[in-house]
């Protein structure tokens, strides 16, 4: 797989309608790729089988796990086209989200699943029955849910009925600064869920291609004795996606920074905080766990 670009992107959720035509001309190439995990590496959490396959050349997932395949009105197709144009431009990656194919997800480790947004209560039934999910971490903002017309309250009610813990840690879509600021609390929720040990954890954003995989990678980096590149390559080899690596590095810097006179993150080289010392990892874990309940 070619390297996923981590260039920053502006904090814009929707592309103005009058600029879509100009943007769409830049989006003709839909190549897909996948990272490979380096051989003979031992991880703290054992990798598990893939749950949904890589993107095809058309940009559509091959054989995705889905709970809804019915046709949607053309209005939803317009939303998808608009969203994918924005994602390709601002995240600098070739991936697409196909809301009309229903929820899709990937089993990253034995107890961690990364995926797209549940769209209806039946998706919660599926996660509980088929995957043993006991915790759901939602990184969407209210406007993300409203954009797709998802009834979030019905999903939350179903979670309560099935005794699934549902937690929200909103971060702004396509905004690396918002992601950087939100990662510590999101990872705190992941760590708490894993410590409870009642079942698998499902972490999602809208498409499961940016914010959610970033939170999962940050957890693997901070709590599972991996450096950032190992954690990033491990996840993206299973679920092709383009989470912003710089946002994860920035959050790592924020948590490990212990001296007020430390060099500003913006002045550091691109490889800074791709790995951390044991004392830094311990400090990060203590600070993340102190965020529980906030």
Keywords:
Protein-Tyrosine Phosphatase, Chain A, EC 3.1.3.16, alpha/beta, five-stranded mixed sheet, 5 strands, Tyr_Pase_dom, 294 residues, disordered N terminus, TYR_PHOSPHATASE_DUAL_dom
Describe, in plain words, how this protein is organized in 3D.
Pfam families: DSPc (PF00782). This is Laforin. Residues 104-261 form the Tyrosine-protein phosphatase domain. Its EC number is 3.1.3.16. Residues 181-240 form the Tyrosine specific protein phosphatases domain. With 294 residues, this protein is of the alpha/beta class. The model is unreliable at 1-72 (pLDDT under 50). Strands 1-2-5-3-4 form a 5-stranded mixed β-sheet, with helices on both faces. It has one domain (50-289): Protein tyrosine phosphatase superfamily (Protein-Tyrosine Phosphatase, Chain A, Alpha-Beta Complex), CATH 3.90.190. The chain has helices at 20-24, 74-91, 121-131, 142-148, 152-161, 176-196, 211-223, 228-238, 245-256, 278-289, and strands at 105-109, 112-115, 133-138, 165-168, 200-204. The radius of gyration is 18 Å and the shape is globular. The chain has 10 helices and 5 strands. The chain is 41% helix and 8% strand.
CATH C-level category: Alpha Beta
Low-confidence stretches: 1-72
Approximate strand percentage: 5-15%
Q: What structural class results from the helix and strand content?
A: alpha/beta
Element-level helix/strand string: HHEEHEHHEHEHHHH
User: Any guess at the CATH architecture?
Assistant: Alpha-Beta Complex
Residue-averaged pLDDT, rounded? 81
User: Helix segment count?
Assistant: 10
How many strand segments?
A: 5
Helix content: 40-55%
Describe the strand arrangement of the main beta sheet, using strand numbers. 1-2-5-3-4
For the biggest sheet, the summary is: 5 strands, mixed
CATH superfamily: Protein tyrosine phosphatase superfamily
Question: What's the number of domains?
Answer: 1
Shape: globular
